[in-house]
Amino acid sequence: MARLARLLAAALLFGIIAGPAAAQGGGALDWLAGSWRGAGTMMGNASEATLSVRPALGGRFLEFSYRAGPFEGRAFYSPASEGRWQARWFDNRGITFPIAATVAGRQLTSEWGDASTERGRTLYRLADDGRLHLTDSVLRPDGQYRDFASHVLARAD
Fold first, then answer.
1. Residue 35 and residue 51: Cα distance in Å, rounded?
2. How far apart are alpha carbons 141 and 135 in whole angstroms?
3. Secondary element (H or E) of residue 121
4. Domains of the chain with CATH codes
């Protein structure tokens, strides 16, 4: 009986430690979770894109897996504070970026890069018709963003 009590206490302690991150993380981006597919452009050329957003590593992170043509990347997002997320991006160019993101309603704005890398922004916006508008932009030296990819995705699952 004492052993069972210790096991239940350990499970409760683990739930208290793991619970807030999982709860905050899951609810804020529920609208984005799942598989998406659609058409658009990348670097001025027509392309098909896919996006998958799923819990990863015991629910501690949301994994974003993105592919457009030959380009492929992944990011692992975790909640930082109310409405704010942090992440790390990895892609098949061998590049990695830090990401600072904010959620407002059904839009996720991800600012990526730092002083040692290129900088840019990715917008994920769920439209009223249920389609996901995904736009990637790079920050130019003049402080303006230039879009280099834009896709409209529909749920694939």
1. 6
2. 19
3. strand 120-126
4. 2-155 (2.40.128.20)
Query: Which of 150, 157, 147, 156 is CA-nearest to residue 39?
Result: 150
pTM of the model: 0.82
Predicted pLDDT at 28: 87
Over the stretch 54-93, which tens digit does the pLDDT of each residue have? 999 999 999 999 999 899 999 999 999 999 999 999 999 9
Rounded distance between C-alpha atoms, residue 114 and residue 132, angstroms:
27
- Reading the block at residue 6, the tokens are 């210790």
Specify the residue for token string 């892609």: 91
**CB–CB of 38/46 below 8 Å?**
no
The answer to whether 78 and 61 have CB atoms below 8 angstroms apart is: yes
